Amino acid sequence: xxxxxxxxxxxxxxxxxxxxxxxxxxxxxxxxxxxxxxxxxxxxxxxxxxxxxxxxxxxxxxxxxxxxxxxxxxxxxxxxxxxxxxxxxxxxxxxxxxxxxxxxxxxxxxxxxxxxxxxxxxxxxxxxxxxxxxxxxxxxxxxxxxxxxxxxxxxxxxxxxxxxxxxxxxxxxxxxxxxxxxxxxxxxxxxxxxxxxxxxxxxxxxxxxxxxxxxxxxxxxxxxxxxxxxxxxxxxxxxxxxxxxxxxxxxxxxxxxxxxxxxxxxxxxxxxxxxxxxxxxxxxxxxxxxxxxxxxxxxxxxxxxxxxxxxxxxxxxxxxxxxxxxxxxxxxxxxxxxxxxxxxxxxxxxxxxxxxxxxxxxxxxxxxxxxxxxxxxxxxxxxxxxxxxxxxxxxxxxxxxxxxxxxxxxxxxxxxxxxxxxxxxxxxxxxxxxxxxxxxxxxxxxxxxxxxxxxxxxxxxxxxxxxxxxxxxxxxxxxxxxxxxxxxxxxxxxxxxxxxxxxxxxxxxxxxxxxxxxxxxxxxxxxxxxxxxxxxxxxxxxxxxxxxxxxxxxxxxxxxxx
Length: 562
What we know:
Elements: H1 3-6, E1 16-19, E2 21-25, H2 28-39, H3 44-58, E3 68-75, E4 80-86, H4 119-130, H5 135-148, E5 150-151, H6 154-162, H7 164-167, H8 171-177, E6 189-190, H9 193-205, H10 214-226, E7 241-243, E8 246-250, E9 253-257, H11 264-277, H12 288-302, H13 318-321, H14 324-336, H15 344-349, H16 356-359, E10 381-387, E11 393-399, E12 409-410, E13 413-414, E14 421-422, E15 430-431, E16 446-450, E17 453-459, H17 464-476, H18 482-487, E18 499-503, H19 508-516, E19 520-524, E20 535-539, E21 545-549, E22 556-560
Parallel strand pairs: 14-15, 18-19
Antiparallel strand pairs: 1-21, 2-10, 2-22, 3-4, 3-11, 4-7, 5-6, 8-9, 9-16, 10-11, 12-13, 16-17, 17-20, 20-21
Helix pairs in contact: 2-3, 3-4, 3-5, 5-9, 11-12, 11-14, 11-17, 12-19
């Protein structure tokens, strides 16, 4: 693969088809690593570990080696689905540590908090349970890319400029992100020699180097120096959690999404259940009725976040949240409140400035495009989908979210910290400072089964809480093929004042219909990367595998043929 081929930017993507093994990742480099591991006899889980290590070495604007790992895996041998949650955790007995002051935008009053890294503990747990290749061999590509550097794309360069105030707040961040005093130009190689040294130690000593070893001790020492009195014991007091996913039926298939402490599975069940009783499948795709129903269903489902969380510590009424009769009641509530008069005049009369700010509340920390706000800390993640020749199927995320000390770099490893709120019922990312408890999050790893076999997996960063049910609905309710379902316009949930932020590919007829319903439409870019970037694999009608990457970011889908 030439250097030019590694530089990918957002734009139309051609699905890879007719494959014996398939993958889709957020990076051409990570996809190359996955195929290399699979070609050498590793399984999908081996390939996922190697790809995560590489992504954190070549996409520090989206992920890093101290963030969060979530993992949904279908093990073909046992025909079992496994879920792992290894998000960053908050040390017991200590208040939130927030060394970087507030910035601007909708979350200005909530500086990011430091937390204990979850990335390496998560990869360690996956490798111990499923790995067939030597750990050190899975580190080789990450070491090489950190050493030699990766070519910078225009998308990556833009992310650094956008988050410059945050990533350069400390001298360590300035040294990492501004070598020579300037961002690395587009097309040039961005090298991380200190990171490469750390990863060599990770290869030699195993992931414990960053959990209890020398890097971990350096991390604790830096934290103590900054005023965060953690100890080495805090690094292991909340181990990765193997738990059960959430399952529900929808239109002839079984959807399997992340369960507690993640809330995406329940959120999707609520959203799709409401839409089923609103009869979404018989609406015209892209119509005002469709957009109104989706916006309203997403909004109502999001009002239930506060009733979800870590079931080991809080009551979660799962039976109610999955109850079809409850979904029917919520749909009746929505349909019964649908306007009867033409409200176009009201929409035209209310100044936009009275409602634009509210759009930012549901963006999960991302900048609401066009809303006149600035959010100056990174908000990125990397999703990957992998299916090997034996039918093992992985959908997982690694992300810079919820790991390490915000803005700090230790041993060449940058960190962002956590955007979690504390004790807030309406936040999709929330935590209560209880020892051993895991924070509520909405990571979107999802699989779809038919006749007890996986037929499709999908997931995305970027406003995951609302994008996954939309793509599921495009595919399962409207019958779009997977790539078209990912390509189709996406929106945020409707706000309390009937605002709807949607990508600018909505027909004039649909906009007029929404205005009649009293909905104030705000246009995001036609392809807004804050609306996520799906990585998918699926079984086609011929029995072979296909894969695709979302056009909104820089992903690449590929695979192996017989």
